[in-house]
Design a protein that fits this description.
Helix content: over 70%
Order of helices and strands: HH
Strand content: under 5%
Structural class: mainly alpha
Distance between the termini: 74 Å
Number of helices: 2
């Protein structure tokens, strides 16, 4: 996989914790950062997909509810309207 260089600022506390984790895990800091970003971005993407699915579900539910009311109204009129003599 191709790679690119990024430059960003982190707090001194976060830098210290990253260095300690790298020593403890025997991994390079960039590997830890890459793994953390993968996890975070995957979760953010899942959260966005779930929010969109929830939004679509609500739209369908609202649509179904409106159509159910219409169907009930149609049945009411069909059952109560005297259509004898209509052509």
């Amino acid at each position: 996989m191709a790679s690119a260089t990024s430059s960003f600022r982190i707090s001194t506390d976060l830098q210290k914790r990253l260095s300690e984790a790298a020593l403890r895990l025997k991994k390079r800091k960039n590997a830890i950062i890459n793994e953390a970003l993968e996890v975070y971005l995957s979760k953010a993407n899942r959260d966005a997909e779930l929010a969109e699915a929830r939004r679509q579900s609500i739209l369908v539910s609202e649509h179904d509810a409106k159509n159910k009311v219409r169907r009930e109204e149609d049945r009411f009129w069909e059952n109560t309207t005297d259509t004898r003599g209509w052509r």
